[in-house]
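Both lines are quoted verbatim for reference:

——
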Amino acid sequence: MNKKKFHAILVFGLIGLVMTLSACSQKVPTPDMDKVNMMIAETVAVQRTKTEIARPTNTPTVQPTATNTPEPPTPMPTPTSMEVTAVTLSAQPISGTDGGTWVSSSPADKATQLQGQTFKVTVKLMNIGTSTWTTDYSIRYIDGDIKASPDTYRMPVSVPPGAQIDIIVTLTAPTKTGMLRGNWGIFNSANVAFSGFYFEYDIQ
């Protein structure tokens, strides 16, 4: 209800009550208008309080607070292959001191061989050093009248210090005659000669 209408109805109602009482009895005193106005004000205040209590409070709706959600990390690419650098393997390093000596040849030195002929000789060598002759060690034709083909022979097996080894080589007698030689060397894995020997035959 409108406050002004309520106030007017209340005022007219009180005035009517006063007039009725005045008409019924001459002994009822005339009402004091200041008191009437005060009663009206108190009544209006009470009605306003009731209305405010009955009205729901306008409570602001709490808005959700935005939060910063971290973005997932960018996945790193998975390596699918790996570059491999080719490595050339070298001979095993030499451990100890190289040393070797000729022991024997078969056919023996100074034996007769026909000029221009090819023949085989088994040479026996001994490792007198402190290093092991690996299969990277070899014997090699150096120079002389009696040549070899091929001119290099690798050790067929490893030869430890104090052991002996037999190697079969193919030699060719020259076309000239006489007591002739072919000079050889024993080489380590670094292609360094550390000992020498020769073959000597009577070429006819």
The first helix runs from residue 3 to 24. The domain at 100-203 is CATH 2.60.40.10 (Immunoglobulin-like). Strands lie at 100-106, 112-113, 118-127, 138-144, 147-148, 152-154, 164-172, 178-187, 193-203.
